[in-house]
């Protein structure tokens, strides 16, 4: 059994839904109160035992690299001004021993293509994938729950939740083998990306995965499909011919911060914990 130590973060997407805010800054850098969205996702990974963060990025996303790098000038100013609380916020202890790796995805050909860009960094091991747009709040975190499920079942695991039937067309949707599934672990029969009609269930894929490195074999030969993009879902579907995949019904509250509505709700939710009014 391999320990999950690497997480891939596809962050090359354009963030058009947030224009003009995202004209000059990556959508992943939009703040949820005072912390950028991407930091919540990286924190989730690191707290789950991930040691290497692999960003699949693009030329418009340099601010993400800067955010996880050191800013000596700012640190020095904070230090000499005695502002140690802020110093801790920009130079976090939990990130000290974490390796950050950046791979450029030159053209945005979809999630499957983004993940394929990490192939040379993943060596005979299962790895995590986190889509930072999905902010999921829970302790233990969603990715921790998936890693526990991977340890238990020894196969790839994808995070799923129940959505209203009329919303299934926005997600990957799984079909399950009822006879072997339990309350929160569903063995997949099939998976389909954004079904227009007849969704196989109301169990939708969220942006958290723990996948076997076999996924690269299937990703390599994929043709673009839904939306003209290479879909990770299609590779998972092919993988089902050879191995088991579990859908894990995670516990937690999810905010789709790729949409303005979800983003504002995430801020409202976290603000309630911080402020009285
Ligand atoms: C991607 C996946 C989809 C999944 C979703 C979760 O879609 O392709 O299967 O359900 O993330 O957020 P996207 O939202 O990038 O269109």
Query: Separation of termini?
Result: 49 Å
Query: What is the element string, with H for helices and E for strands?
Result: EEEHEHHHEHEEHEEEEHHEEH
Number of strands: 13
- Helix percentage: 25-40%
- Average pLDDT across residues? 95
Q: List cofactors, ions and other ligands.
A: 1-O-phosphono-alpha-D-glucopyranose
Tell the overall outline: globular
Low-confidence stretches: none
CATH topology: Spore Coat Polysaccharide Biosynthesis Protein SpsA, Chain A
What proportion of the residues form beta strands (DSSP E)?
A: 15-25%
- Structural class call reads alpha/beta
**Major beta sheet, strand line-up:** 5-4-1-6-11-8-12-10-9
Given the structure, what is the number of helices?
9
User: What is the domain total for the residues?
Assistant: 1
Please name the CATH architecture. Answer: Alpha-Beta Complex
Q: Any idea of the CATH class? A: Alpha Beta
What's the CATH superfamily, by name?
Spore Coat Polysaccharide Biosynthesis Protein SpsA, Chain A
**Largest β-sheet summary:** 9 strands, mixed
Radius of gyration: 19 Å
Keywords: Nucleotidyltransferase, Transferase
Organism: SAR86 cluster bacterium SAR86E
InterPro entries: GalU_uridylyltTrfase_bac/arc, NTP_transferase_dom, Nucleotide-diphossugar_trans
Catalytic activity: alpha-D-glucose 1-phosphate + UTP + H(+) = UDP-alpha-D-glucose + diphosphate
